[in-house]
Amino acid sequence: MIRPSRRWAASLALTAAATLAASALSSPAAQASGANTAPTKARAAVANADPDGPEQIHNGTFDSGSDPWWHTDNITFDTTGGRLCADIPGGTVNPWDVIIGQNDIPLVQGETYAFSFSASGDPSRVGKAMVQMPVDPYTAYVTANPELTPAGGDFHYTFTSPVDLATGQVVFQIGGSATPWRFCMDDVSLKGGADPEVYVPDTGPRVRVNQVAYLPKGPKNATVVTEATTALPWKLKNAAGAVVASGTSTPRGVDASSGQNVHSIDFGAYTKAGAGYTLTADGETSRPFDIGAGAYETLRSDALKMYYPQRSGIAIRDDLRPGYGRPAGHIGVAPNQGDTNVPCQPGVCDYSLDVSGGWYDAGDHGKYVVNGGISVAQLMSEYERTKNAPTAKPMGDNALALPESGNKVPDILDEARWEQEFLLKMQVPDGKPYAGMAHHKIHDENWTGLPQLPHTDAQKRQLHPVSTAATLNLAATAAQAARLFAPYDAAFAAKNLTAARKAWAAAKANPAVLASPSDGTGGGTYDDADVSDEFYWAAAELYISTGEKEFQDYVLASPLHTSDIWGERGFDWGHVAQLGRLDLATVPNALPGRDQVRASVVAGADKYLATLTAHPYGVPYNPPTYDWGSNNLVLNNMVVMAAAYDLTGTRKYRDGVLQGIDYIFGRNALNQSYVTGYGEVNSHNQHSRWYSHQLDATLPNPPKGTLAGGPNSGIQDPLAAEKLKNCKPQFCYIDDINSWATNELTINWNSPLSWVSAFVADQGDGTVQAPGKCQVTYTTHGQWPGGFTTQVTVKNTGSTAVNGWSLAWSFLGGQQAGQSWNAGITQSGAKVTAKNVASNAKIGAGQSVTFGFLGTSPGGANPNPDLITLNGAACS
């Protein structure tokens, strides 16, 4: 299954040919040894050009003035002393606001060039030097970001030209500074005949562990890269260096995903919590790690806190996110041109829409319904799990430090609402062609460069055509939002349900309106030629929320309902039938054959668990090539295993998740965590226009808890193509801001990270929760418009009496428990708590008590709850 490129499609057409031929990780010996050497950094590499080769740069020493160098109008040249200097003005926004360049540089396809120069900055700045196409889209064949200091430095780079070009261009982009500074350069050279640079990542010690934490009573596994073929002794040491456990490794042979010969280590028998543990084997000592649950409680919040700074249309408050405060982006305040009144692309529509708000999709300023759809759905699903899973713990109000905190709504729903309101705005108004459908996306007319804060983006914004996929994403998320927001905002819930019904009808009337794979200028295409999975997902969500026969019949008739949808590559924005299947299995509903739906989720989990067990690195994902955003696919496969645990309580599925998370946090071939701020060595230069610290020291790195896309065998961007040629799948990654194919951040990659981190945090220290000794019969005897009556019987199946009881469950949506008998009932949001009265406080062994209540309902489905707890323990 080949996945459509998730973004940058038009740029790929122009840059896929720009495969820079510097080899990367092509040495099997280096891979087998774990590539345990320091990284070759471009600015420090020696460009070994042919000394007799022709010099492509004219007057690179500035001994005869500045010709033929040119500059933008806001600077002047000073060549006093035989070097070129310029005073760079402050108050510029973009790097390209100040440029020094030279034109008509000939490039020969297949030739490897050495590009070098000396340069300084006072005060220090990060500059940008490129050899590129001289006209739009200015495709760069090498991009360098030298750190310019007052003392100056020499910088050397190599690249292989993908084109024959007589009019190449060398440019130094040095704008984007709030304050003035002075730039100087000398000895600029570009020569052919260079040896391609070999990039070797620093993979650190050959013992690979989860650098964050293992749960005390959960599984604990590590991988050792070694040439040994027989078992090796290992030792676990605490922070004081004392050996606390020991054993021998299990040889696993050569791992195809990394090309390394590896052994596995299982030290799960050691259960004492603590910090600073290390694992030693084959003469190598791992990076330190903890044994404890605290890190995942923090990650549960951090993974969600990433979304607030991604918001469009609102100023980000520095008091809520220190270091990340910024003005509101795209609210129609100069230089922004939107998003409060955005027109369509020419010929698409005759109206403009207010589509302000929502989350910026990734490292650019685009907003996409299909990617926003899966992202907001997974956040809502994370919340909905707290209503239906025995181990789930709710995250309430004031948990995420949001502007909405304190409004008596769970913060995770507040964050989800910010995106859901944007999705609603993308629906075509009544009376217009395609009314009820959703525009596929909204973004800049042309691609912008890095760095670029949202409020400084002056590009024209445009609505793109409607699509069936976007329309069904809206139908699905709006149906889900209708039930989840009903206890907190009935009007917003009703608005969502109306929008969902309208979108469903519009999609059925227009079932094959597909996004164009060529519509990729200024934003990703997100094209999808098969929308049967979107129809299935939307029908499932509408059925769960309404219980209506139309949607039930559609679900049951869909071939996807009974097919094996658990592919080895997982699910993502373009493959969403899994979202529908998971919710049908885990959210209360009365679908005929629901037991088979649940069994299918367990079968999918078994597949991923088998993959994990067979993988020497313990990954529930092992295709022959890794996909764009592979880390989110790994996590989504863990979501399936976690759902199986919620459904069955079988420990192996929970342990699969706990073991799978190790890969994300360092038990991988590169020996690094892919989550910013977690692990001794972690991704922190993800591709982003405003978390661009690598390019501008005044800007931050991505927020703590941000997931990098991860290894991608496609290596579609020029930097990855230069550094990672011939890479084994796990090595197809580089933590560099210019590698948008391997290292971008996105809202739909953080959503499964958030979901899974919450699941892991819910497991506490890893102790398996015992089921309660109780059995509940919940019967709704009568329903009428606006109301219902329910009787509940709870039986004590234990051998000792229960003295005082509290029974709890959650309604699907906006139902409210009212008058009761034989119990005192209270309700908060959707959660209902029934407590004994004086006369029935004691339930003897084998005995039962019965109580009942009258309820009110806003309409829609009112299924029996899946989860009812007695004094906190789940009943059968």
Provide tags for this entry.
876 residues, 15 helices, disordered N terminus, 39 strands, 5-stranded antiparallel β-sheet, alpha+beta
Itemize the secondary structure elements and their pairings.
Elements: H1 9-15, H2 28-32, E1 70-71, E2 84-88, E3 99-107, E4 112-122, E5 125-126, E6 128-132, E7 140-144, E8 147-148, E9 153-160, E10 165-173, E11 181-192, E12 207-208, E13 213-214, E14 221-225, E15 233-237, E16 243-248, E17 250-255, E18 260-266, E19 274-281, E20 284-285, E21 289-291, H3 294-305, E22 342-343, E23 352-353, E24 367-368, H4 369-388, H5 411-425, E25 438-439, E26 441-444, E27 461-463, E28 466-467, H6 468-485, H7 490-509, H8 532-546, H9 549-557, H10 577-586, H11 594-614, H12 630-648, H13 651-664, H14 718-723, H15 747-762, E29 774-784, E30 787-796, E31 802-803, E32 806-810, E33 816-821, E34 824-828, E35 831-835, E36 842-843, E37 848-856, E38 869-870, E39 873-874
Helix pairs in contact: 3-15, 4-5, 4-6, 4-15, 5-6, 6-7, 6-8, 7-8, 8-9, 8-10, 10-11, 11-12, 11-13, 12-13, 12-15
EC number: 3.2.1.4
Domain CBM2: 767-876
GO molecular function, one term: hydrolase activity
